[in-house]
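Tokens for chain A. Residues wanted.
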């Protein structure tokens, strides 16, 4: 066990929320809000939420390496037939990819990502249908000491 309890899961989620919130502030209109989990209702779009998380844990002599293979966030917007609105979401996605590329440690000092998967998906809420774009980090690593 580590000498102090690990906060890796919370820390990575906090980093993602911080990076996304800064993106929204720097790019007004691209992202209105950021949630730590999927909201129970669909608020003003576009917004982002942190999705479920999974990890692989590897032990060796004196260290524990946690690879967060399922850390993802989803950007949600309305589905529309309007080509201009669809283009706006593409512009947001491209801007976010650039933003994240400039932040390989997600604004922190521990752990780094080297791969990012971006995929479109359906994001329904009740009787309303939204489009989602999932940003998944398949290889966020953090190494922790252990006794």
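Reply:
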């Amino acid at each position: 066990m580590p000498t102090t309890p690990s906060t890796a899961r919370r820390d990575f989620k906090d980093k993602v929320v911080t990076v996304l919130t800064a993106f929204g502030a720097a790019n007004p209109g691209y992202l209105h809000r950021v949630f730590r989990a999927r909201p129970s209702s669909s608020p003003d779009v576009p917004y982002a939420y942190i999705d479920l998380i999974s990890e692989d844990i590897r032990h060796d002599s004196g260290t524990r390496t946690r690879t967060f293979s399922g850390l993802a966030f989803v950007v949600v917007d309305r589905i529309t037939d309007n080509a201009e609105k669809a283009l706006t979401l593409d512009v947001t996605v491209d801007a976010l990819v650039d933003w994240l590329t400039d932040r390989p440690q997600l604004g922190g000092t521990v752990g780094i990502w080297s791969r990012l998967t971006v995929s479109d998906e359906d994001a329904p809420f009740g009787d309303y249908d939204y489009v989602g774009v999932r940003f998944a980090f398949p290889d966020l690593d953090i190494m922790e000491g252990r006794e």
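The mean pLDDT is 83. The chain has two helices and eight strands.
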